[in-house]
Inverse folding.
């Protein structure tokens, strides 16, 4: 996903569109204990929304335990009258990962598991591609993106509308080839957080949803949040996600089939309001103690969850500015610095929605935002606010940079897609008759892909996904272009047939454009004709 469950850079804006804005905000005087600048929270929210044509937005800021800003703007769904309010639920996507690790930390405190336990202690059938790694893969390894697998490996089993169960995910892992050594480098993944959810269930005897609801959300006082979309109460306000075709100028509500299935839950399934996310932040500032004084995790485990494990930064020290090269992934959290100030954060991306959450522990500041477009709207706002609060008048204009990046990418996106699917001037015809390519091809981790003839051309059926079914257009030789009917997913793919002795024996695929989300990991498929 992207959880997309992914990390969205401030400047890595996906394509966006305009929607009517309506402002509803509740500014509160900042607490006196922490001396910080006072940004114009609402003006900055409207600036980024207008600049990237966002559909809806919610955001909140707390300082010294008091909410100093709570705002909501825009529409629940483009083209419909419902407006976002402070009580509207947004998917927080991969920010959910910290709830999963918190739940596991509670079990560590109870002596029911250890971070260094092998995963096979709880899931005997668990296996990675390498048998040695399978034996030595620990609970901590499942949480820190150092498995050796490539970015987003296996996401196609459940993305964009895949039907994989947790059992399917566990089965798939042993067929996914690593691209780096075990514990040697960072590559964001989602499947292993689904495994983590299964560890939680087997060690606790409870479902992930029940555990998160009853042992975290309720005690922390996050009463408006839902651990699963099906738990949103009747009458609660919640958003529709929005995607857009390359070059479009407003969001299009996502196909309902793209909504995260329960399989995603432990990697990115929670829905929350911005105000309830302030309670989550305060819980961490209070070292794992709830507002009514109940300790949910020990201080030792709280520190463990915030201890960096996997380096994620470039390692290149910039000529000026804060030490942003010092970046680590901890257990469900990202660690960095802002002008010397420690930052604990995570971003999230679900179908048509993005979120960003920042804690500045030394400043006692919590910042959260979410938008119902797959844009960097929330991260641009939260990072701008964080910079304003820490650096004051010296803060860079991160929102301005984000808008400029959006304008550039939005202008170039359509041309890039059109160019990518235009056959080269020296293109050759397919080497085989059309009928010779038809048949069923199988990949051991994904399953089957069927090529059939429809009319005079070929048609691809990706089996797990209904959205990834469509016609194949001849491109060059034995390479065809899969142009998916839903243009908002921006994931057209090249389909190249392996031909031996006059027969099509296999298929390789890859995304046509670099604007395609990493969870469309077509390149990891190795399809062989059945």
């Amino acid at each position: 996903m992207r959880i997309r469950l992914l990390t969205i850079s401030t400047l890595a804006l996906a394509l966006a569109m305009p929607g009517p804005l309506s402002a509803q905000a509740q500014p509160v005087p900042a607490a006196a204990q922490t001396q910080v600048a006072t940004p114009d929270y609402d003006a900055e929210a409207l600036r980024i929304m207008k600049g990237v044509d966002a559909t809806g937005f919610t955001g909140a800021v707390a300082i010294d335990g008091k909410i100093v800003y709570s705002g909501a703007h825009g529409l629940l769904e483009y083209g419909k009258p419902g407006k976002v309010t402070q009580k509207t639920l947004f998917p927080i996507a991969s920010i959910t990962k910290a709830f999963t690790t918190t739940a596991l930390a509670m079990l560590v405190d109870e002596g029911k598991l250890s971070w260094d336990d092998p995963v096979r202690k709880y899931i005997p059938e668990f296996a990675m591609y390498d048998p040695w790694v399978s034996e030595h893969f620990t609970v901590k390894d499942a949480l820190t993106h150092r498995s050796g697998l490539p970015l987003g490996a296996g996401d196609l089993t459940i993305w964009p509308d895949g039907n994989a169960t947790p059992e399917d995910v566990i089965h798939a892992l042993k067929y996914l080839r690593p691209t780096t050594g075990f514990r040697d480098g960072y590559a964001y993944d989602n499947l292993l957080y689904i495994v983590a959810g299964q560890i939680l269930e087997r060690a606790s005897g409870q479902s992930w949803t029940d555990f998160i609801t009853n042992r975290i959300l309720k005690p922390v006082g996050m009463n408006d949040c839902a651990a699963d979309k099906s738990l949103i109460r009747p009458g609660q306000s919640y958003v529709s996600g929005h995607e857009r075709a390359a070059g479009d100028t407003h969001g299009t509500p996502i196909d309902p089939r793209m909504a995260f299935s329960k399989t995603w839950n432990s990697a990115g399934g929670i829905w929350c309001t911005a105000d309830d996310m302030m309670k989550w932040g305060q819980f961490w500032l209070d070292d794992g103690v709830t507002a009514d004084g109940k300790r949910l995790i020990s201080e030792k485990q709280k520190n463990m969850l915030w201890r960096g494990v996997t380096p994620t930064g470039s390692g290149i020290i910039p000529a000026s500015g804060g030490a942003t090269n010092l970046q680590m992934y901890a257990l469900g959290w990202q660690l960095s610095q802002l002008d010397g100030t420690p930052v604990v954060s995570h971003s999230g991306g679900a179908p048509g929605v993005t979120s960003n959450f920042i804690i500045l522990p030394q400043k006692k500041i919590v910042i959260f935002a979410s938008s119902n477009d797959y844009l960097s709207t929330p991260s641009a706002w939260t990072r701008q606010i964080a910079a304003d609060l820490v650096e004051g008048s010296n803060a860079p204009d991160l929102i301005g940079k984000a808008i400029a990046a959006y304008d550039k990418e939005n202008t170039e996106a359509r041309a890039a897609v059109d160019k990518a699917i235009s056959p080269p001037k020296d293109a050759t015809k397919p080497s085989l008759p059309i009928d010779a390519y038809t048949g069923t091809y199988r990949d051991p981790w994904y399953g089957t892909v069927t090529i059939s003839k429809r009319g005079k051309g070929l048609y691809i059926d990706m089996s797990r996904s209904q959205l990834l079914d469509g016609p194949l257009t001849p491109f060059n030789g034995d390479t065809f272009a899969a142009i998916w009917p839903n243009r908002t997913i921006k994931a057209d793919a090249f389909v190249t047939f392996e031909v031996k002795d006059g027969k099509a024996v296999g298929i390789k695929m890859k995304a046509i454009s670099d604007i395609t989300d990493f969870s469309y990991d077509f390149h990891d498929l190795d399809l062989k004709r059945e």
Notes: Residues 434-529 form a domain with the Lipocalin fold (CATH 2.40.128.50).
